[in-house]
Write a structure and sequence with these properties.
With 509 residues, the protein is α+β, with helices and mostly antiparallel strands. It has a single domain, classed as Cytochrome P450 (Cytochrome p450). The chain contains 20 helices and nine strands. It has a four-stranded mixed sheet with strand order 1-2-7-4. A three-stranded antiparallel sheet has the order 3-9-8. Strand 1 and strand 2 form a beta hairpin. Helix 13 packs across helix 15. The longest helix is centred in the middle third of the chain and has 32 residues. The termini are far apart. The model has no long low-confidence stretch (mean pLDDT 90).
Length: 509
């Protein structure tokens, strides 16, 4: 009887405690969605019935005010729905929302301590040191490395066009961006078109593989970071982690022992490790110092190399494949791109150069429109580091409250983008641009914590698409005709359920 009473009382107390937790937003007078035990409002995403971007879209479209309260398991989250409020969070009141509030555990999981996740002063210091890595001068110096990756891509497309084969665009784009990252970041000569199972491609594929473990990682990373700490699950599987450590340490040892200099991002990390800063645009050499005076540990160096790889590879390849899908779906837009590429190259002796790529203004608008409709990261995270009184409201956001910004929803809201499913590059013509409040655009984030690799990502994507359309045209696979892409519910990044299948044709004009 005592045991039964203990169970009854324990169950009653647990019920009351959960009910209290789930009344957080109600007690603060904030509009909220009714949660369900045990997943709060995140059940569809946790059970892999809906990707997180689309789950947030449900929350966004349920809101009647500037934000709405939801629960990730038992953790209260605030979904920002109003561009004015979002601008305050990302820019005006950035000091209050400097942290992303995502998973990071430098002690037990060193590779989680990268620029994307680091909080507060650690992020601020590292960001200041890494910012010179992505100047236009550095981009121009690295450009030739991108051009060296064009040959394998065009040869691959020629074989496809000759054989009248259908290609999965995401895989083709991923091979190209993997080649670029391997060469431009690590100085490695990799050709994943010739060797699809090269370690660089194989382990990169593993990071984004659709399985329960990666799904859990991404859910916990964004919605409930403490889950990863409680379970002891690390950022990467042990063999993937070992691969990155080995690649970085071997590359570092080779360069420091032999004083090898290459114009790539890894060289800039070597500079940062030895001198505490990245040197001027035309300075690539570095003085090698003793271990006692290094400013970056191997763990810190590997963590930054990892995030450069992950962010650069996935976002660029996804943007390329979605852009190819849309221009195949819209032949008139593809025709304009062909005309622009032909005209610009004619001014530059028929060559793709740093200057000619920057002259492709219509292609730039096509990429911006692709990133609007298919943002690579469909949501942003921020966390308050102190209590914050929302301007013009009775609501105070408590310290430690996560803010979720539904980029996918804002980019597809007809209030800001009429006929949002229509692919219309003219939205981004200079004369059509509007203020952030009238036309919110967050493909690369906004404010001091925006994407540091914006220039590199756009340049890689433009080079890839321009080199393809220079000699080839693309056509939709039969299964895509007249249809919008449906996203895989098991992936928290926007991933097509059945891939993106295209036909490659020679250009004879």
């Amino acid at each position: 009887m005592l045991f039964i009473w203990f169970l009854v009382i324990s169950s009653a107390l647990a019920y009351l405690y959960i009910k209290y937790l789930y009344s957080y937003w109600q007690r603060r007078g904030v509009e909220y969605l009714q949660p369900s035990f045990p997943f709060g409002n995140a059940g569809k995403n946790f059970m892999q019935k809906m990707c997180l971007g689309e789950q947030l879209d449900e929350f966004y479209r349920s809101a009647t005010g500037p934000f709405i309260g939801v629960y990730g398991l038992f953790r209260p989250n605030l979904v920002a729905c109003c561009p004015e409020f979002i601008r305050n969070v990302l820019i005006r009141d950035f000091a209050t929302f400097i942290d992303r509030g995502v998973y990071v555990d430098e002690k037990n999981d060193p590779l989680s301590g990268h620029l994307f996740s680091l909080p507060g002063e650690k992020w601020k210091s590292l960001r200041a040191k890494l910012t010179p890595t992505f100047t236009s001068g550095k981009m121009k110096s690295i450009f030739q490395t991108l051009l060296d990756c064009i040959g394998p891509l065009q040869n691959h497309m020629k074989k496809l066009a000759d054989s009248d084969a259908t290609i999965e665009a995401r895989e083709m784009s991923a091979k190209f961006t993997t080649n670029v990252i391997a060469s431009a970041q690590f100085g490695l000569d990799v050709d994943t078109f010739a060797d699809p199972e090269s370690p660089f491609r194989r382990f990169g594929r593993r990071i984004f593989e659709l399985n329960w473990k990666n799904g859990f990682r991404l859910f916990a990373f964004a919605v409930c970071p403490s889950l990863l700490k409680w379970t002891g699950m690390r950022t990467l599987d042990p063999d993937v982690e070992d691969f990155f450590y080995q690649m970085v340490t071997q590359n570092l040892e080779l360069r420091e022992k032999n004083n090898i200099v290459r114009k790539d991002f890894f060289q800039l990390l070597v500079q940062l490790r030895n001198t505490g800063s990245v040197q001027l645009d035309d300075e690539w050499k570095t003085v090698i110092k003793t271990d006692s005076s290094k400013t970056l540990t191997i763990d810190e160096l590997t963590a930054q190399a990892l995030i450069f790889y992950v962010a650069g590879f996935e976002t660029s390849s996804a943007t390329m494949s979605y852009c190819l899908f849309e221009i195949a779906k819209n032949p008139d837009i593809q025709r304009k791109l062909h005309q622009e590429i032909d005209a610009v190259l004619a001014k530059h002796d028929g060559k793709l150069t740093y200057e000619s790529i920057n002259d492709l203004k219509y292609l730039e608008c096509c990429l911006d429109e692709t990133l609007r409709k298919y943002p690579p990261v469909p949501f942003l995270f921020r966390e308050s580091v102190k209590d914050y009184k929302v301007p013009g409201s009775h609501v105070t956001i408590e310290k430690g409250t996560p803010i979720l910004i539904p980029v996918f929803s804002l980019h597809r809201d007809e209030k800001y983008y009429p006929d949002p499913l229509k692919f219309d590059p003219t939205r981004f013509f200079p004369e059509n641009r509007k203020s952030f409040v009238e036309m919110p655009y967050l493909a690369f984030g906004e404010g001091p914590r925006n994407c540091i690799g914006l220039r590199m990502g756009k340049m890689t994507t433009k080079v890839g698409i321009a080199s393809m359309l220079q000699k080839f045209s693309v056509e939709l696979g039969d299964e895509h005709i007249g249809k919008e892409i449906k996203f895989c519910p098991a992936a928290n990044l926007l991933t097509p359920i059945s891939g993106i299948n295209l036909k490659i044709n020679h250009r004879y004009t």
